[in-house]
Amino acid sequence: MLQAINLSKRFKTKEVVREINMELLAGESVGLLGPNGAGKSTTISMLSSLVQPTSGDVLWNEKSIAKNPEPLRKTLGVVPQEIALYPELSARENLAFFGRVYGLKGELLETRITEVLMKIGLTDRQKDIVKTFSGGMKRRLNIGAALLHRPSILIMDEPTVGIDPQSRAYILETVKQFVEEGMTLLYTSHYMEEVEMLCDKIYIMDQGKIIAHGTKEELKGLVSENQTIELKANLLTENFEKTLIERFPTATLHIEEEVLTISMSKSEEPLATIFAVAAANNVVITSAIVKVPSLEDVFLHLTGKALRD
Amino acid sequence: MKGIWIARFLNLKRKPIVLIMMTIMTLVMASVVGGSSNGKMSVAVAVDDSETTQAVLERLKKEKGYSLLEITEEELQQKAKEDIRMVGIGLKETSYTIYSASDSDGVRNLSLIVESAYRDNSFKQQVIQAGGDDAWAELEVSLNDDQAFLIQTEAMDESEVFRYDNALQSLFGFMLFFVFYTVAINVQFILDDKRSGVWNRLKLASVSRFQLYFGHLSFSYIIGLVQVLLVLFVFRYVLGTNMYDGFWKVVIIAAIYVLLVMAFSVFVISLVKTVSQSSIIISLVAVAFAMIGGAYWPLEIVQSEGLLAMKWISPIYYAMESMKRVTVYEGTLSSVGAYVSMMIVIAIVLIVVGISLLEKRTERYHSSE
């Protein structure tokens, strides 16, 4: 089990991580979300023993990694946000290099390289120079380089940034497979649907703090007291709107062209009433969408919509 | 560390252009500017059949600083008309003519040697005429054994003596200048690895910081050393450049200089964020150091006090001075001990400061998310 206990990091006067507590259980897939500058990469760096915390501690199997990070490092694979590869070397040469630094050699190294190349779908391009690769291929190889020593924990820092949808889908499927095989995963991304697809538990960070955490459902519960119903209708009349307000006094209504948006308490079941009122007012409803909050809604609800430049 | 070496070697194999270009540039520039000579003045000599001219020619052959080309009188006349750079001598029994478009120190020295050879030969003939060959043999022995006075030569304070060898000036200057780029570009791989995340990957694989720095720096050092050795060997053993028996001393100084350049490059990359920033600084600084360090021209001809005062900050100055002193000034390694010690001390300080700053910067990379 990997645990962060009251973890803080200060760079000169700037406190980038503030007393965060996290835990990553064996076989769990955990997402770490946060806007730019939230402190995600610093947190990952501290969790992976690359950066020493200013205060607090990281425990691996209940032992601090501050003085002895070796046991953690042996079982840890980190996929950094950057393409941490040698562009002048071939895919196979890169993997051989990183495998060798993990102490692999001879036939074992060759077997692992072949295995990893198959996993990341680069067997056919193994002899090609990395700088000739597309962004997606580089990202896949970047993941491959972290898998050679068969880590039991994989930390991925935005592994799908700037790549085409096909490569992204391939990477997500591959990571999903790792999770299904029982690998422990800590995943950060700006793409909410990726975290939603891969992770059981999510931590949301902002301004160096963990502002919320829990399962997807628990987090969605934070913003799901209200529901939103979007109606498309012909001949929206003032009377129709007025009647709806009378029927749902706590709801807020907003009309824009032929779309009526109603926001109200989740406890109400309004669709039957809305259709009845519509029929009484000769309003023809062409579509009705009841919106359930997404992870993105949760994220924006918690972190706000203001730009973080 | 072995892994870093393999990766760097493979990288060099794929992109050898810097090493090749810098080596070729050194060879070409030093050859062109230094005149690709072996440190000797080429002199065309035409002699007649007299004993006197043969004796003068033999005397000239014994002089170290001249490379003689024997041609006929007609050829000499023709060459003098066609080649403005030619230096030639027409030796006759009772006179000689020097052909030269310029009145340089070399030509004046040549004239003095020839004149002295004629005078000595005339004295010898007079003695032989008066007392026969035996008298000359006897006199020669007594002249050698009982010298009326002994000439003892001793160098003045080295700073007051100016000896100049154009071939070596160009060779050392361009060699020290171009290897600056080779080493600096190689050291920049540290910055590249830090920026790309490879550095952190290696740290996570439990490669120690010492191994990381030592792997990169030792490889950069060896590449720089290979370049200077290649250049020195080509000039000494292929082109036959005269190094005044100081070849191995030059090699030792070059090895220490490469260490200094490597340390300086570490310091530069510790001050910048990107490889392109580092490249700009290295380009500017290398040229400035070459100018104030005496790589392009001997500092003895520099008049500006300000420029001369700045020479102490240039790594090239220490190496250039040391190399000149162990060659053209025929000094020993201990005579350049102060320069060599300075190079070693500065190298150590720059490496320590550079690596400390780089380590602080590594932390800052994590804060720049």
Brief digest:
Chain A is built from eleven helices and 14 strands. Chain A has helices spanning 40-47, 70-75, 91-101, 106-119, 135-144, 165-180, 192-198, 216-221, 238-247, 271-280, 295-303, and strands at residues 2-11, 14-24, 29-33, 55-60, 63-64, 76-79, 153-157, 184-188, 201-206, 209-215, 226-234, 252-256, 259-265, 284-291.
Describe this entry's structure for a reader.
The complex is a heterodimer of chains A (309) and B (369). Chain A has helices at residues 40-47, 70-75, 91-101, 106-119, 135-144, 165-180, 192-198, 216-221, 238-247, 271-280, 295-303, and strands at 2-11, 14-24, 29-33, 55-60, 63-64, 76-79, 153-157, 184-188, 201-206, 209-215, 226-234, 252-256, 259-265, 284-291. Chain A has 309 residues and is α/β, with parallel strands linked by helices. Chain A has two domains: 2-221, P-loop containing nucleotide triphosphate hydrolases (Rossmann fold, 3-Layer(aba) Sandwich); 226-291, Alpha-Beta Plaits, CATH 3.30.70. With 369 residues, chain B is mainly α. Chain B has two domains: 2-36 and 165-367, no CATH class; 41-158, abc type-2 transporter like fold (3-Layer(aba) Sandwich), CATH 3.40.1710. Helices cover 69% and strands 6% of the residues of chain B. Chain B has helices spanning 2-14, 17-34, 51-62, 73-82, 105-145, 166-196, 198-204, 209-238, 247-271, 275-293, 305-309, 315-326, 337-367, and strands at 41-47, 66-70, 87-91, 96-100. The chains are: A alpha/beta (309), B mainly alpha (369). At the A-B interface, helix 1, helix 2 and helix 3 of A face helix 1, helix 7 and helix 13 of B.
